[in-house]
């Protein structure tokens, strides 16, 4: 993925010589701008704002394969978004492995909150979303920028991954459960009508019943609108893959089922709060299951048919 900009040249070489060409870069290079963009039709355009990750969570392969964090220049991002808006896209999804780190290493002084504020001012855009944000450096400035914006959606996806402090330490997540819960409190204070979702891994090596209970406690305290939940799976080449793990899979599956049941109970409660309410929905198209219905999402990322 570090050298996709060289594809035309590589194709030319193989066409000229009739021989296969191999060109694998071990390390990331400069960000190359103005590559051709092909977008799927629809209302949402995905725009990369940064590449790579410096966090090295112990279970994750991304920093090894995507390299260090590099941000695109603000003007290049704004230009790409303006082009997408002119083509009719109404929602922008800003992409990065860790969007809060946006701006690190750039010559200009700009951070993710500044970027959100700038994008918010672009005419013709209905909604701005972003993924993924790391709870470790989700600053008050970002929280404020979202609360003060017109178009940045009040949906916060803040992956907690685990509730127990020593599992969080083994995962190298860079925050404690107390710090995470304090972040959720600040988010809800600034954006009282927001939705909050998360990612959770169960069965991390050596996770005990107490650790798992800590995760359930965090779900109870944060009352998520939804969660992507997973059983830990090894990624070769990561520190977590080398950890001994004697928790049987059947126990991990039980924990996952219990977690899903709890998460779903909160999802239902949050969804029921929408009963008999009228809220703006940005229509995306015709429902695949029922052609008499249209579907779209609320600002808080609830699917509506
Ligand atoms: Fe980076 Fe996310 Fe992977 Fe952690 S889980 S190393 S923040 S990409």
Give a verbal description of the structure.
This protein is α/β, with parallel strands linked by helices and 305 residues long. It is 35% helix and 16% strand. β9 and β10 form a beta hairpin. The longest helix is centred in the last third of the chain and has 24 residues, at 249-272. The radius of gyration is 21 Å and the shape is globular. The mean pLDDT is 94. Iron/sulfur cluster binds next to α2.
* Overall mean pLDDT: 94
Present as ligands are: iron/sulfur cluster
Helical residue percent band: 25-40%
Quantity of strands, as a count: 11
Low-confidence residue ranges: none
Principal-axis shape: globular
Cα radius of gyration in angstroms: 21 Å
The structural class is alpha/beta
Largest sheet: 3 strands, parallel
Strand content: 15-25%
The oligomeric status of these chains comes to: single chain
Give the strand line-up of the largest sheet: 1-4-5
| CA distance, first residue to last residue | 37 Å
What pattern of helices and strands is seen along the backbone? HEEHEHEHEHEHHEHEHEEE
Contiguous helical run count: 9
Q: What attributes characterize this protein structure?
A:
single chain; 305 residues; alpha/beta; 3-stranded parallel β-sheet; 9 helices; 11 strands; 35% helix; 16% strand; binds iron/sulfur cluster
SSE topology sketch:
Elements: H1 7-17, E1 44-48, E2 50-51, H2 62-66, E3 70-71, H3 74-86, E4 91-95, H4 112-120, E5 127-131, H5 140-148, E6 155-157, H6 165-171, H7 177-190, E7 195-202, H8 209-222, E8 226-231, H9 249-272, E9 281-286, E10 294-298, E11 303-304
Parallel strand pairs: 1-4, 4-5, 6-7, 7-8
Antiparallel strand pairs: 2-3, 9-10, 10-11
Helix pairs in contact: 4-5, 8-9
């Amino acid at each position: 993925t570090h050298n996709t900009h060289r594809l035309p040249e590589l194709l030319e070489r193989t066409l000229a010589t009739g021989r296969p060409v191999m060109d694998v870069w071990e390390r990331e290079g400069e960000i190359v701008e103005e590559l051709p963009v092909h977008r799927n039709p629809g209302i949402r355009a995905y725009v990369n704002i940064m590449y790579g990750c410096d966090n090295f969570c112990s279970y994750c392969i991304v920093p090894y394969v995507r390299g260090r964090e590099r941000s695109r220049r603000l003007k290049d991002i704004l230009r790409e978004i303006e082009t997408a808006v002119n083509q009719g896209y109404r929602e922008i999804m800003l992409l990065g492995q860790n969007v809060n780190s946006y701006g690190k290493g750039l010559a200009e002084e700009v951070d993710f909150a500044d970027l959100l504020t700038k994008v918010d001012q672009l005419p013709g855009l209905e909604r701005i979303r972003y993924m993924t944000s790391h709870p470790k450096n989700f600053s008050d400035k970002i929280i404020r920028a979202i609360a003060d914006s017109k178009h940045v959606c009040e949906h916060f996806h803040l992956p907690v991954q685990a509730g127990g402090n020593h599992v969080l330490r083994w995962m190298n997540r860079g925050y404690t459960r107390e710090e995470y819960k304090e972040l959720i409190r600040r988010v809800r204070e600034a954006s009282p009508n927001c939705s909050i979702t998360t990612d959770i891994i169960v069965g991390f090596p050596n996770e005990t019943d107490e650790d798992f209970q800590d995760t359930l406690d965090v779900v109870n305290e944060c009352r998520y609108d939804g969660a992507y939940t997973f059983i830990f799976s090894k990624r070769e080449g990561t520190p977590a893959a080398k950890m001994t793990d004697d928790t049987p899979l059947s126990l991990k599956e039980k924990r996952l089922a219990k977690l899903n049941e709890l998460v779903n109970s909160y999802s239902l409660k949050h969804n029921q709060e929408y009963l008999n309410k009228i809220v703006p929905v940005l229509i995306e198209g015709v429902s695949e299951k029922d052609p008499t219905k249209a579907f779209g999402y609320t600002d808080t990322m609830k699917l509506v048919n």
